[in-house]
Design brief:
Strand order of the largest sheet: 1-2
Number of strands: 2
CATH superfamily: Farnesyl Diphosphate Synthase
Strand content: under 5%
Number of domains: 1
Radius of gyration: 18 Å
Distance between the termini: 28 Å
Number of helices: 15
């Protein structure tokens, strides 16, 4: 499968899975952010991992969509005035600018529970044990020990000049706020393909590094990119005093660290004989986007 084919499949399934029902405003709000045009990296990684390990990528579609739905939840909440207070997402008005803060907050809450229902309802070719493993992965990486915990650390670090262990805090934020969704995507794809424990361990390490690299690139782009390219307000990290790679290491050093991290990802692919044009393209796109 090519990248564009994966994106088309995911877009079609997301539109199918989220139907407008009562209360209509809630479901419209949920669907609004989920179906905004995007790169769909996380669901693509889930399906591609399943495929490259010999599984049927179609078996991973419900899980892949669930991960994208959970990702949309993080975007809705991240844009709220009480969080990053951003009026735009992917070039369109943020959810709370369209539906109001209350509905947007509730839509994000609803998506957290809606996502695993997609897995249990549509994963008809997976065994109950596999579904249970996938669901466990979902709650582990989305919850308080995962993405949500990373978001809390991100908020608590904002404008805080008294942080003593900035490197450790930054690593925690990037690992959980961003990289955990990459790990969830790749691990669930591997589990659906019946990967061995050794394969799962190696792929988890690859996913963690790739996710951190993606966030370093995002930190760089917030400094050098434009609204037209990113579809969101830029420069807000610096304005709000966020702890980022650029604020801690500077722009040039951040680019060096990103280059090293991407090299480690490529090294894992080479040494572990991971053959995937999709992952090679993702790495290249991160590289080119951050201008390194």
């Amino acid at each position: 499968m090519k990248m564009n084919n994966y994106i088309k499949l995911i877009d079609d399934k997301l539109d199918e899975y989220i139907q407008i029902e009562e209360p209509q405003n809630l479901f419209k709000s949920m669907k609004y952010t989920v179906t905004l045009p995007g790169k769909r990296l996380r669901p693509i990684m889930c399906m591609e991992t399943c495929s490259m390990l010999g599984g049927d990528f179609e078996d991973a579609v419900p899980t892949a969509c669930a991960i994208e739905i959970a990702h949309a939840m993080t975007l809705i909440h991240d844009d709220l005035p009480c969080m990053d207070n951003d009026d735009y997402r992917r070039g369109k008005p943020s959810n709370h600018k369209v539906f109001g803060e209350a509905i947007a907050t509730l839509a994000g809450d609803a998506l957290i529970t809606f996502a695993p229902q997609i897995i249990t309802k549509y994963s008809t070719n997976l065994s109950p044990i596999t579904i249970l493993r996938v669901i466990n992965e979902y709650f582990n990486y989305i919850g308080a020990r995962g993405v949500i915990g990373g978001q809390v650390a991100d908020i608590e670090s904002e404008g805080n000049n008294n942080i003593q262990n900035k490197k450790e805090v930054l690593d925690y934020i990037h690992t959980h706020k961003t990289s955990d969704l990459f790990q969830l995507s790749i691990r669930t794809g591997a589990i659906i393909a019946n990967a061995s424990d050794e394969q799962l361990k190696l792929l988890t390490d690859f996913a963690k590094k790739l996710g951190i690299a993606f966030q370093i690139a995002d930190d760089i782009l917030d400094e050098i990119s434009t609204f037209e390219k990113m579809g969101k307000t830029l420069g807000k990290d610096k304005q709000s005093g966020k702890l980022t790679y650029v604020s801690l290491y500077g722009l040039d050093e951040s680019k060096c660290k990103l280059s090293c991290m991407l090299k480690e990802c490529r090294d894992i692919m080479r040494t572990q004989n991971i053959k995937s044009e999709i992952f090679e393209q993702i790495i290249l796109n991160i590289e080119k986007g951050a201008e390194i």
